[in-house]
Write a structure and sequence with these properties.
Layout: H1 9-14, E1 18-23, E2 33-37, E3 40-46, E4 52-55, E5 70-72, E6 75-77, E7 84-85, E8 91-93, E9 113-117, E10 120-124, H2 137-140, E11 144-153, H3 157-164, H4 167-172, E12 192-197, E13 202-209, E14 215-224, E15 228-232, E16 245-254, E17 257-267, H5 300-309, H6 327-345, E18 360-365, E19 371-374, E20 384-389
Antiparallel strand pairs: 1-10, 2-3, 3-4, 5-6, 6-7, 7-8, 9-10, 11-17, 12-13, 13-14, 14-15, 14-19, 15-16, 16-17, 18-20
Length: 392
């Protein structure tokens, strides 16, 4: 479930999906760069027409890194002998070869299919023709604005995915109160939450005491293979009371490190921005366990990094003792294993929609970032993907 290189079960499964490999703003036409994704070193560059290429990183002539090349003549020119390759890996020029030679037609770089949308660059690194691109509404909608964030964490991607459906850690690690924990400390270790799973989703909804008497704060987080975590599904375009979408992809760099791509989409309301300014937390900081020389335990990101990297760069799951509070973690692993087994059988893994059209968008219909409800009120907990009509 953890090894991501070519030929591994998890690696073969990850390569059946469109995965983000970079933010658009990071790839400029004068700065080809090497990135590492799924255990492969790759060259990513933008040509003179603005197209993005993702190829093997060395020139097939004599092995020089194309990172030192420059953009011209319809592609990237190798710094050593000037061979030029386009975004599809075709060799366009070979200075030094005889006029009329067809040698260049016999040379090509391995290149991956690319889609650039919503401020992200996605690649399909699997065999055969790529599946239809999943047209998530938070990538394609034009009636709002997006923000981006990202970081690399020095641990396996499954260490992070295990964390996504673990609401108990939010109480202990991040120092949050759940259901009046300050008045009743024993309840801090037992937040109320439900877990749901089907062939596409694993999801939880957690309840904690709200800031208003008689109210509870409900929050849902969902996971869908291979690496997408949905904190908020967001609203549909015709919703006048739209709320934002908050999603993250946990993309393996290799077996021992993970790149997170985080996108938030804020729909316009009455033509105005609804983007939320960052606010300082008014919650007391948790106890500073561990050493701040390595991790800043006053921040959520630092706390998560300490916990996840502290498990080992690949967690030893055979040594765990999972309890009732870990049922969300268990469902994430079951769903990911089911995806791997589908690929091993020769089937499509969950979430590949072969009949998706360019007139449809996919909307994650989940509870969202949180809502206040009356204590005891039942909230429908049925995460699902909805197809909505409408061009971008």
């Amino acid at each position: 479930m953890t090894r991501v290189g070519p030929g591994t079960p998890a690696g073969a499964t990850l390569r059946r999906y469109w995965l983000p490999v970079s933010f658009s703003h990071e790839i400029k036409s004068d700065e080809p760069k090497i990135v590492r994704r799924l255990g492969e070193d790759l060259l990513i560059f933008r040509d003179e027409q603005g197209r993005v290429g993702l190829t093997e990183p060395t020139c097939p002539h004599r092995g020089t890194s194309l990172e030192y090349g420059w953009i011209e003549a319809g592609g990237i020119r190798c710094c050593y002998h000037g061979w030029v390759f386009d975004v599809n890996g075709r060799c366009l020029e070979q200075p030094g070869e005889p006029v009329g030679s067809n040698f260049k037609d016999k040379i090509a770089l391995k290149a991956y299919a690319i889609r650039e949308v919503g401020g992200l660059i996605f690649a399909y690194m699997g065999p055969g023709a790529p599946p239809p691109f999943p047209r998530y509404d938070f990538l394609f909608r034009q009636d709002g604005e997006r923000t981006y964030d990202g970081y690399v964490r020095e641990c396996n991607f499954l260490n992070q995915l295990d964390n996504c459906l673990d609401p108990v850690h939010a109480t202990i690690l991040h120092g949050r109160e759940v259901n009046g924990a300050r008045e009743n400390p024993e309840r801090a270790e037992n937040p109320e939450f439900e877990v749901l799973a089907d062939e596409l989703f694993a999801s939880y909804v957690a309840r904690r005491q709200g800031p208003v008497a008689g109210k509870e704060w409900h929050r849902e987080v969902s996971y869908t293979p291979p690496v997408l975590v949905i904190h908020d599904g967001g609203s549909t375009p015709d919703d006048p009371n739209g709320y934002f979408a908050d999603v993250a992809w946990r993309v393996p760099v290799d077996d021992y490190s993970t790149q997170s791509f985080i996108l938030k989409f804020f729909p316009f309301k009455d033509g105005q921005s609804t983007k939320r300014p960052k606010r300082a937390s008014n919650r007391p900081a948790p106890l500073l366990r561990g050493t701040r020389m390595k991790f800043d335990m006053t921040t959520v990101n630092g706390q998560d990094a300490a916990a996840q990297i502290g498990q080992g760069r690949i967690a030893d799951r055979a040594a765990e003792h999972l309890g009732y509070s870990d049922r969300g973690v268990i469902q994430v692993r079951k769903l990911w294993m089911a995806a791997i087994q589908a690929v091993q059988r020769g089937d499509d893994p969950p979430g590949i929609l072969r009949d998706l059209t360019d007139s449809e968008m996919l909307h994650f219909d989940v509870v969202g970032s949180g809502r206040l409800v009356n204590i005891g009120e039942m909230v429908e907990h049925r995460p699902r993907v909805v197809r909505i009509q409408g061009m971008e």
